[in-house]
Amino acid sequence: MKIFVLSFIVFITLKVSSNNSIKLWGNTFIKNECIRNDESVSDFLEFHYSKIKITDYFCDTITVNVQQIGAKGDGITDDWAVIEKAVVNLDKLGGGILFFPNGTYIVKNAISLKSKIIFRGESKYTTIIKASNESLDNVFGQGYPLYKHWKKSRLVGGTIDRLKKPDFLTNYSEEEAFITGGMAGYAVTNIKIENLTIDGNKNNRSENKVNLRGLSSSPFLGGEAVVSSSGGRAVVSGFFGGDSGFSIEPRTVEGVFDIGDLVQGEESGATMIVQDKKADDAYQMLIRFDAVSHSFVRNCIIKNSVFTALSIYNYSNNNSIDSNEFFDNNKRGTDFTWGRMNIFVEFDARKNIISNNTVNGGLGYSIFVQSTGGMNYDTHILNNKVFHPGADGIRVGNETSNSSIINSKIIGNTVVGANGEGAVGIRVIHYGEGVVSKAEISNNLVKNCIYGILLQGRVGDSRIFDNFVICSEKVNIASTALLKGNRIFNNSIKEN
Predict the structure, then answer these.
(1) Beta bridge partners of 379
(2) Domain span holding position 427
(3) Tens of pLDDT along 475-486?
(4) Could you point out which of 108, 210, 292, 411 has its C-alpha 20 to 30 Å from the C-alpha of 480?
(5) Is residue 351 part of a domain?
(6) For residues 405 and 53, what is the distance between their CA atoms, to the nearest angstrom?
């Protein structure tokens, strides 16, 4: 592995020559040719159910030390601009390692996720990336990374959806769309985040209030610039039907958007009086995987989030969240009370593995898998330890959804002390037109919870076996499932 000592703090404009070299940071780089390695994570974990392969392109021929290009890591200076520029430039090189020596790196905005980049700390205990007191954003990953492409799609008369190709006009097949991931072919792949403490600094931050609510004259457009009568300017990032409001991208906000302001879209001409400002829980997470596939978060400490700590969302496939420590996540007293999970998987996210993590506390579900927005299948929840969750320890399913969840595996986990009102150690539940089917719950230890293990609603062809349930306050193991084919057998129960 080549390590380039980068002595220049000022970023130099990229110059690409005919021999595929790039002039950057005062050095000449050759663009990466990445090495492919298919890793079968299920085999690695010694479970032999449906295998989930994560295609891993190792792009470690270039290592950039963030302190050698201007990041301070002093716990005071906002290092986001330096880190973000390094991400952009490594992306142009085809990937590489962004190395963080010991220190505390303050970031006001989210660090963008780009393909084939490894974010690596010197030590997960002493290398800290921390949200600033003023941050309205995530630490890693933008809330709505596709907002820039919505405008591009309109210019060609196309749309953005899961099957669309990057031309916004023609479609992938279902198989191609799954392999590609993301929407309109815009997916980030082969990221690694490892050996870091990621600190949301929740006690010093207010909830983001970037969701502007009101009745608009006509629909606003995703990705368009908007201005306010108080002199604010921003870009629409999350679009909710046009007539009930929208979110603005934190990194684009200049000036003020106040209640009572007239807001106008520069492209649509739509206007709206801001009647209220709400939080958007797509922001103020610690890690947001939106259209991210074949990627890893490993050996990190993930703490002090305002909202959900880690989200796998929006056509994110074949990811591994392994051997991390989650604690003290979710902020009390926010107006927005949803978005209080440690690990959240939803919106057509498939073949993701959550394994060997330790989760302490939190105000909501510790590990939550649902299918709002599209079918979820082959989520494996393996060998995690969950202590004192605010709600269910592990929850698979929706209160109401038309999409199904297939082939979830909840195996070898420990859940202790799910004592919130109505909390369940492990719950599989579904209502609406969708179903949960072929779930397996086995070899788990559930102890000192209000309820132990429950199947509820439209759940079928699922099995609960070889579990140990100890001292549940009300029910140890039960099923009120409405569908056929469920089996409960060979479990060990110890009463109070």
Answers:
(1) none
(2) 364-494
(3) 999 999 999 999
(4) 411
(5) no
(6) 19
